[in-house]
Amino acid sequence: xxxxxxxxxxxxxxxxxxxxxxxxxxFPKKYERSHLSGELIQHFEEIEGTTVRVAGRLVGAIRxxxxxxxxxxLDASGRIQVLFRRNTLGAEGFSVYRLLDAGDFxxxxxxxxxxxxxxxxxxAAELTFLSKAIRPLPEKWHxxxxxxxxxxxxxxxxxxxxxxxxxxxxxSRAVSAIRRFLDxxxxxxxxxxILQTLAAGAAARPFETFSNALDASLYLRIAIELHLKRxxxxxxxxxxxxxxxxxxxxxDRQHNPEFTMMELYQAYADYEDIMELVESLVSSVAVExxxxxxxxxGNDEIDLAPPWPRRTLRELMIELAGVDYAAYGDDGALIAxxxxxxxxxxxxxNRAKLIDELKSSLVDPKLVQPCFVVDYPAETTPLxxxxxxxxxLVERFExxxxxxxxxxxxxxxxxxxxxxxxxxxxxxxxxxGDPGAQALDEDFLEALEHGMPPTGGVGIGIDRLVMVxxxxxxxxxxxxxxxxxxxxGG
Length: 490
Fold this sequence. Notes:
Elements: H1 2-21, H2 37-42, H3 44-47, E1 51-64, E2 68-75, E3 78-85, H4 86-97, E4 105-114, E5 120-131, H5 147-152, H6 154-160, H7 162-184, E6 188-189, E7 195-196, E8 208-211, E9 216-220, H8 225-233, E10 238-246, E11 258-267, H9 271-290, E12 294-297, E13 300-303, E14 310-312, H10 313-321, H11 331-340, H12 351-363, E15 371-377, E16 386-387, E17 390-401, E18 404-411, H13 416-431, H14 442-449, E19 455-461, H15 462-470
Helix pairs in contact: 6-7, 7-9, 7-15, 10-12, 13-14
């Protein structure tokens, strides 16, 4: 309750004042520690009986026994018990101990020992206040079912749950492993603009802002693709970027308005080469992080070891959705077939939108084991090269794991005349009110007209890949601070 919280806060402020009256600085500049708790526990046999210096946040209850007390401090490597004795700390030090609350940061110097119960402990001979927590930690926070509060106040989630901290450590290590893999294959990491004058490179609704300096509308990028292709035109034959992408669209367990994408482009390669790269990258990262290619995904065990099956989009649509889109020559007939399959399409949806919605609703969720879905209708993918053997299809694949698309890739279209025609077609759809139509990027077309070699490219959703590696079914569980609706009242 707010009143109760205010009362607890006021009690802590009184303790803060008492510390200052004793001449104790409750917010000193630094503290030199000799060991993390994990190091101390791991090497205890060598350290036992020596003086150590540890620091961290007090967590859990402080068990006060009158002339002594026990507490645990949490640091980056785990937690360790601390014993406070009046006889060891002295009167002044024990008076400081009496002003401790759960949540405070402290530094402790003292002997490493075991208690009678065998728990590794630091017996405090010196207690240094490092930071007074004015607000108390929520009681019984561990296991709290208020999911939105966990996401909104992630810092409390991190304090309470080692599993949550482990997920974000895994995410960090996954990004590092991806970089090592790509660097090892000769790729160069670059940075491209987040603020752009045109929202291009994907079928997505952008976030719009305004530059006072340029007196112009700008957009947060919806894809990294077109700038990386410019780099290929310029002679960087293997290039990648890991960065934030922004799409002003829906929020669900697989989608967040801002997310992290890894995009790469490899000159003189096609989508077959990129398939090999993707399955090798994902399996290598899994082995490096988890020691195995087998990961748990809900009730399923997924094996990320290559090779992954290749299935055409058409055969999967027939098999899993019961719709052969190639058998319907006009949009009206395809809309009727989609309704018969259980979809609720809008009459304004064009053929590309219908195929994408059928796939997303009726095919994607069933692709639990890793696989590549290949060969898409040309109208769905304006930036991909046509298949030599089938002019109505393009060389595109999507990589699926756990019923989610984790990667999208093409043999990139490098014919500037054909690319211009397709972008003009997309611009016409946009003029007719299609919010998902791609923009015509004149600067990109000019770059392409200077010549781009045959190129394969892929975008991999880092958040979704981490979801699979960490067995987390909701994207918000792998984004440290996910975007949430503003609090009522600000």
